[in-house]
Amino acid sequence: PEMVRATLEALLDALEDNAELLRIVADELPRNENRARAEALEQRVIGLVSAYLAARPPLMRSNLTPTTAAWILVRAIENLTVRYVLERPPIDRAAFVSELERLVAGYLVQA
User: Fold this and answer.
1) What pLDDT score does 39 carry?
2) Residue 58 C-alpha from the chain's centroid
3) How far apart are the first and last CA of the chain?
4) Residues in Cβ contact with 81 at an 8 Å cutoff, skipping those fewer than 6 apart
5) CA distances for 39 relative to 1, 7, 34, 46, angstroms
6) pLDDT of res. 81
7) What is the DSSP letter of 100?
8) Which of 49, 58, 79, 91 is deepest in the core (most CB within 10 A)?
9) So what's the pLDDT on residue 41?
């Protein structure tokens, strides 16, 4: 749980520090021009999360594979954090991070 919160905070810090660049990349640049590099980075992150989860089986429900969990979690967190930074909803950052933690924990352990 502490590692999840720290990772979420670091991700938000990085995205917020580069919000204007993020806006250009997410909303204005054609995805095709950078597809190969973006996909390689995404696969690397998914691989790291999958390895982390595989090394800690008690973190996950028994009917969930690390690869599946990693893909879903990376995509969900990526989308939510990017949209949070770009849209600036009326949600306190600490509350947002807490809700993401609950999302991750609930997904991994709920039957």
Assistant:
1) 84
2) 21
3) 19
4) 8, 11, 12, 15, 100
5) 27, 21, 9, 10
6) 95
7) H
8) 49
9) 84
pLDDT at 111 over 60: no
H or E element: which one contains 28?
A: none
CA-closest candidate to residue 104, choices 82, 87, 81: 81
Q: What residue has token string 């990693």? A: 70
- Write out the DSSP string of 37-93: HHHHHHHHHHHHHHHHHHT-GGGS-TT--HHHHHHHHHHHHHHHHHHHHHH--S--H
Per DSSP, 26 falls in state: I
- Span 51-85, pLDDT tens digits: 999 998 888 888 999 999 999 999 999 999 999 99
Rg value, the chain, Cα: 15
Q: How many residues does the chain have?
A: 111
